[in-house]
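Progress note, sequence design subtask.
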């Protein structure tokens, strides 16, 4: 007798599911037994992604729309409840890039990226958590609820040509942690991934796939972690951030304190900060050779392991 698939009977929403990571994640969830609602902008891509799942024996429906619109979020939840009577999993993946240096970026380029990434994650999370909270109150206990959000190392490393994208991804990480802490009592488990994957959005950076052997940047190598975090086995994982690609998954630690300065040790009579005591405390301090005070250089080193990116 075969074991049941880990997501049999579950219902999942995946945004940005027409291509790349979202498409791979939707296929992986469906292969694990989930019934999947695919969201993307209206068009052939998302319809083809759903048709591919159905051709493989899975269950998939399309709920197309602009993820930055409140009404799209409402319709996604309504579709899940109308078609399947429940919602268990939300995978937020939709995004785009408008790269430019901070001194050249237009208002429109900033607003569009924040709207699709951060507002899009908020809208779906807002709708899903409200539904799960109501369910939990009605049942008198926690419900089955999983959120997997898509952040990026751009926020860890301060990607210099992506101020809009890095800021959005930092916001998504904060949104994930807040959701995890505020909704855990209802059964919600919210985690974030920082994926490295070769998609249409990253083609200029990642280049082409190798001619032979596995492609460590294929989106299909990220999808298994997303499926696991969506499963019952991940009930004990909440508010975590993973960097994932190829065969590597790194669990990030929260920011730590590098150094503590105390006014009382630098001439302050009452131990409180004055301009003079601040000047005394920071007189010998300078940011290191990386030219950035907050950057997770350890994440860079992971790339060398499997895809040969330099860490410099």
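Output:
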């Amino acid at each position: 007798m075969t074991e049941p698939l880990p997501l049999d009977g579950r219902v999942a929403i995946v945004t940005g599911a027409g291509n790349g990571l979202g498409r791979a994640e939707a296929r992986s969830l469906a292969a694990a037994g989930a019934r999947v609602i695919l969201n993307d902008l209206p068009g052939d891509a998302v319809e083809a992604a759903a048709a591919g799942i159905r051709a493989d024996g899975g269950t998939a429906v399309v709920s197309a729309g602009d993820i930055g619109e409140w009404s799209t979020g409402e319709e996604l939840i309504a579709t899940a409840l109308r078609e399947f009577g429940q919602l268990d999993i939300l995978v937020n993946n939709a995004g785009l890039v408008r790269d430019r240096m901070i001194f050249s970026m237009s208002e429109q380029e900033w607003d569009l990226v924040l709207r699709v990434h951060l507002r899009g994650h908020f809208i779906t999370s807002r709708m899903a958590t409200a539904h799960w909270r109501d369910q939990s109150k009605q049942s008198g206990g926690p419900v089955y609820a999983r959120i997997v959000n898509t952040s990026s190392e751009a926020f860890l490393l301060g990607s210099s040509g992506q101020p809009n994208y890095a800021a959005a991804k930092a916001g998504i990480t904060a949104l994930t942690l807040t959701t995890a802490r505020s909704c855990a009592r209802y059964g919600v488990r919210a985690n974030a991934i920082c994926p490295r994957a070769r998609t249409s959005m990253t083609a200029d950076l990642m280049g082409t796939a190798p001619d032979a052997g596995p492609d460590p940047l294929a989106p299909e190598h990220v999808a298994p972690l997303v499926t696991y975090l969506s499963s019952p086995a991940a009930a004990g994982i909440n508010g975590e951030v993973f960097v994932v690609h190829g065969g590597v998954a790194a669990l990030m630690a929260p920011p730590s304190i590098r150094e503590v300065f105390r006014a009382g040790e630098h001439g302050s009579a009452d131990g409180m900060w004055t301009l003079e005591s601040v000047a005394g405390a920071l007189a010998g301090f300078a940011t290191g050779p990386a030219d950035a005070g907050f950057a997770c250089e350890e994440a860079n080193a992971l790339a060398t392991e499997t895809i040969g990116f330099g860490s410099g």
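The CA atoms of residues 242 and 251 lie 5 Å apart. Work on this subtask will continue into the next period as scheduled.
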